Amino acid sequence: MAAKKKGSGGKGVAALIGVAFAVAGASHGHHGHGGGIFAHFTDIHVSGGLNTPRGFAKALLKSDGLPVTGANMCAVTTWEAHEGGGFGNQASFNPLNTNPGPGAGWPGHNAIGAWAFPDAQTGLKYTVATLNNGSYGGIIAALRNGHDGQGVLNAIMASPWAASHYGGGLTGC
Predict the structure, then answer these.
(1) For residues 143 and 71, what is the distance between their CA atoms, to the nearest angstrom?
(2) 10 Å Cβ neighbour count for 3?
(3) Burial per residue of 119-143, b for 16 or more beta-carbon CB atoms within 10 angstroms, e otherwise
Protein backbone atom coordinates (compact mmCIF):
# COMPACT_ATOMS: atom_id res chain seq x y z
CA MET A 1 0.00 0.00 0.00
CA ALA A 2 1.34 3.40 -0.92
CA ALA A 3 1.72 6.00 1.79
CA LYS A 4 -0.79 8.82 1.96
CA LYS A 5 0.47 12.19 0.89
CA LYS A 6 0.11 14.84 3.55
CA GLY A 7 -3.23 16.58 3.09
CA SER A 8 -4.56 14.08 0.54
CA GLY A 9 -7.00 12.24 2.74
CA GLY A 10 -8.78 12.06 6.01
CA LYS A 11 -12.35 12.87 6.92
CA GLY A 12 -13.18 16.55 6.82
CA VAL A 13 -10.05 17.56 4.92
CA ALA A 14 -10.55 19.56 1.75
CA ALA A 15 -8.28 18.49 -1.09
CA LEU A 16 -7.55 20.73 -4.05
CA ILE A 17 -7.16 18.50 -7.04
CA GLY A 18 -5.86 19.43 -10.45
CA VAL A 19 -7.96 17.25 -12.71
CA ALA A 20 -7.37 16.85 -16.40
CA PHE A 21 -9.93 15.61 -18.88
CA ALA A 22 -8.95 13.54 -21.88
CA VAL A 23 -10.94 14.19 -24.97
CA ALA A 24 -9.53 11.28 -26.90
CA GLY A 25 -7.90 9.93 -23.82
CA ALA A 26 -6.64 7.08 -21.86
CA SER A 27 -8.09 3.62 -21.74
CA HIS A 28 -9.26 0.88 -19.49
CA GLY A 29 -6.55 -1.63 -20.31
CA HIS A 30 -8.83 -4.63 -20.62
CA HIS A 31 -9.74 -3.32 -24.05
CA GLY A 32 -6.45 -2.26 -25.62
CA HIS A 33 -7.28 1.36 -26.43
CA GLY A 34 -4.41 3.81 -26.60
CA GLY A 35 -3.31 6.56 -24.24
CA GLY A 36 -4.20 10.18 -24.67
CA ILE A 37 -3.50 13.84 -24.05
CA PHE A 38 -5.17 15.81 -21.30
CA ALA A 39 -6.99 18.73 -22.83
CA HIS A 40 -7.87 21.06 -19.96
CA PHE A 41 -7.67 21.34 -16.20
CA THR A 42 -10.27 22.04 -13.52
CA ASP A 43 -9.75 22.59 -9.79
CA ILE A 44 -12.03 20.43 -7.67
CA HIS A 45 -12.49 20.83 -3.91
CA VAL A 46 -13.31 17.53 -2.25
CA SER A 47 -14.14 17.23 1.39
CA GLY A 48 -13.29 13.87 2.90
CA GLY A 49 -10.32 13.32 0.60
CA LEU A 50 -9.73 10.89 -2.22
CA ASN A 51 -8.65 7.97 -0.07
CA THR A 52 -12.18 6.83 0.79
CA PRO A 53 -14.80 5.33 -1.51
CA ARG A 54 -17.19 8.26 -0.95
CA GLY A 55 -14.46 10.87 -1.35
CA PHE A 56 -13.23 9.36 -4.60
CA ALA A 57 -16.80 8.94 -5.93
CA LYS A 58 -17.62 12.59 -5.20
CA ALA A 59 -14.40 13.79 -6.82
CA LEU A 60 -15.00 11.63 -9.89
CA LEU A 61 -18.48 13.05 -10.38
CA LYS A 62 -17.44 16.66 -9.73
CA SER A 63 -14.39 16.45 -11.96
CA ASP A 64 -16.50 15.35 -14.90
CA GLY A 65 -19.29 17.88 -14.25
CA LEU A 66 -21.74 15.12 -13.31
CA PRO A 67 -24.40 15.60 -10.63
CA VAL A 68 -23.40 14.59 -7.12
CA THR A 69 -26.67 12.92 -6.10
CA GLY A 70 -27.48 10.06 -3.76
CA ALA A 71 -28.20 7.82 -6.76
CA ASN A 72 -24.87 8.60 -8.43
CA MET A 73 -22.93 8.25 -5.18
CA CYS A 74 -24.56 4.86 -4.58
CA ALA A 75 -23.74 3.73 -8.12
CA VAL A 76 -20.09 4.81 -8.05
CA THR A 77 -19.37 3.42 -4.57
CA THR A 78 -21.08 0.13 -5.52
CA TRP A 79 -18.93 0.03 -8.66
CA GLU A 80 -15.81 0.68 -6.58
CA ALA A 81 -16.75 -2.17 -4.21
CA HIS A 82 -17.19 -4.60 -7.10
CA GLU A 83 -13.92 -3.56 -8.72
CA GLY A 84 -12.13 -3.79 -5.39
CA GLY A 85 -9.23 -1.51 -6.26
CA GLY A 86 -7.60 1.50 -4.72
CA PHE A 87 -8.18 1.23 -1.00
CA GLY A 88 -5.58 -0.78 0.89
CA ASN A 89 -4.51 -3.14 -1.88
CA GLN A 90 -2.05 -3.36 -4.76
CA ALA A 91 -4.11 -1.11 -7.07
CA SER A 92 -3.03 2.03 -5.24
CA PHE A 93 -5.21 5.09 -5.87
CA ASN A 94 -7.25 3.21 -8.49
CA PRO A 95 -10.67 2.28 -7.05
CA LEU A 96 -12.17 1.37 -10.43
CA ASN A 97 -9.13 -0.68 -11.53
CA THR A 98 -8.47 1.43 -14.61
CA ASN A 99 -5.65 0.01 -16.75
CA PRO A 100 -3.71 1.47 -19.66
CA GLY A 101 -3.38 -0.13 -23.02
CA PRO A 102 0.06 -1.30 -24.11
CA GLY A 103 2.55 1.54 -24.42
CA ALA A 104 0.21 4.17 -22.95
CA GLY A 105 2.96 5.65 -20.79
CA TRP A 106 0.82 6.09 -17.69
CA PRO A 107 2.55 7.01 -14.43
CA GLY A 108 2.70 4.19 -11.91
CA HIS A 109 3.09 0.46 -12.48
CA ASN A 110 1.25 -2.79 -13.15
CA ALA A 111 0.21 -4.36 -9.85
CA ILE A 112 -0.92 -7.88 -10.76
CA GLY A 113 -3.84 -7.19 -13.06
CA ALA A 114 -4.58 -3.63 -11.96
CA TRP A 115 -2.69 -0.37 -12.28
CA ALA A 116 -1.13 1.35 -9.27
CA PHE A 117 -0.91 5.14 -9.49
CA PRO A 118 1.66 7.21 -7.58
CA ASP A 119 -1.01 9.36 -5.84
CA ALA A 120 -4.76 9.91 -5.60
CA GLN A 121 -4.87 12.94 -7.89
CA THR A 122 -3.16 11.01 -10.68
CA GLY A 123 -5.52 8.06 -10.20
CA LEU A 124 -8.52 10.37 -10.42
CA LYS A 125 -7.17 12.14 -13.51
CA TYR A 126 -6.63 8.90 -15.41
CA THR A 127 -9.97 7.43 -14.31
CA VAL A 128 -11.80 10.52 -15.62
CA ALA A 129 -9.77 10.33 -18.83
CA THR A 130 -10.72 6.68 -19.28
CA LEU A 131 -14.43 7.39 -18.79
CA ASN A 132 -14.17 10.05 -21.49
CA ASN A 133 -12.24 8.04 -24.08
CA GLY A 134 -15.35 7.39 -26.18
CA SER A 135 -16.01 3.83 -25.03
CA TYR A 136 -18.18 4.61 -22.02
CA GLY A 137 -20.80 7.06 -23.26
CA GLY A 138 -23.62 4.97 -21.77
CA ILE A 139 -22.10 5.27 -18.30
CA ILE A 140 -21.60 9.03 -18.66
CA ALA A 141 -25.19 9.47 -19.94
CA ALA A 142 -26.63 7.46 -17.04
CA LEU A 143 -24.59 9.46 -14.52
CA ARG A 144 -25.67 12.72 -16.18
CA ASN A 145 -29.30 11.75 -15.44
CA GLY A 146 -28.39 11.70 -11.74
CA HIS A 147 -31.55 10.03 -10.45
CA ASP A 148 -31.27 6.33 -11.34
CA GLY A 149 -28.48 4.53 -9.53
CA GLN A 150 -29.48 1.12 -10.86
CA GLY A 151 -29.61 2.61 -14.36
CA VAL A 152 -25.96 3.66 -13.91
CA LEU A 153 -25.05 0.17 -12.71
CA ASN A 154 -26.88 -1.33 -15.71
CA ALA A 155 -24.93 0.97 -18.05
CA ILE A 156 -21.66 -0.12 -16.41
CA MET A 157 -22.58 -3.81 -16.85
CA ALA A 158 -23.53 -3.18 -20.52
CA SER A 159 -20.24 -1.36 -21.20
CA PRO A 160 -16.86 -2.84 -22.07
CA TRP A 161 -15.46 -1.72 -18.65
CA ALA A 162 -15.19 -5.29 -17.36
CA ALA A 163 -15.18 -8.30 -19.66
CA SER A 164 -17.16 -10.20 -17.02
CA HIS A 165 -19.91 -7.55 -17.03
CA TYR A 166 -19.95 -8.35 -13.30
CA GLY A 167 -21.93 -11.51 -14.04
CA GLY A 168 -25.04 -9.33 -14.14
CA GLY A 169 -24.69 -8.83 -10.39
CA LEU A 170 -23.87 -5.14 -10.16
CA THR A 171 -26.95 -4.15 -8.15
CA GLY A 172 -27.90 -2.34 -5.00
CA CYS A 173 -29.00 1.21 -5.87
Answers:
(1) 9
(2) 8
(3) bbbbbbbbbbbbbbbebbebbbebb
Q: How far is CA 136 from CA 2, 3, 47, 120, 162, in A?
A: 29, 31, 27, 22, 11
Q: How far is CA 87 from CA 29, 45, 52, 71, 146, in A?
A: 20, 20, 7, 22, 25
Question: H/E/C letters for each residue in 17-71?
Answer: EEEEEECCCCCCHHHCCCCCCEEEEEEEEEEEECCCHHHHHHHHHHHCCCCCCHH
Q: Report pLDDT digits (tens) over 93-136.
A: 999 999 887 778 899 988 877 899 999 999 999 999 999 999 99
Strand partners, 38: 22
pTM above 0.85, yes or no: no
Rounded CA separation 40/49 (Å): 22
Q: DSSP 3-state assignment of 15?
A: strand
Instruction: Please state, in angstroms and rounded to a whole number, the distance separating the CA atoms of residues 166 and 80.
Output: 12
What does the chain come to in residues? 173
Q: For 111-123, give the secondary structure using H, E and C.
A: CCCCEECCCHHHH
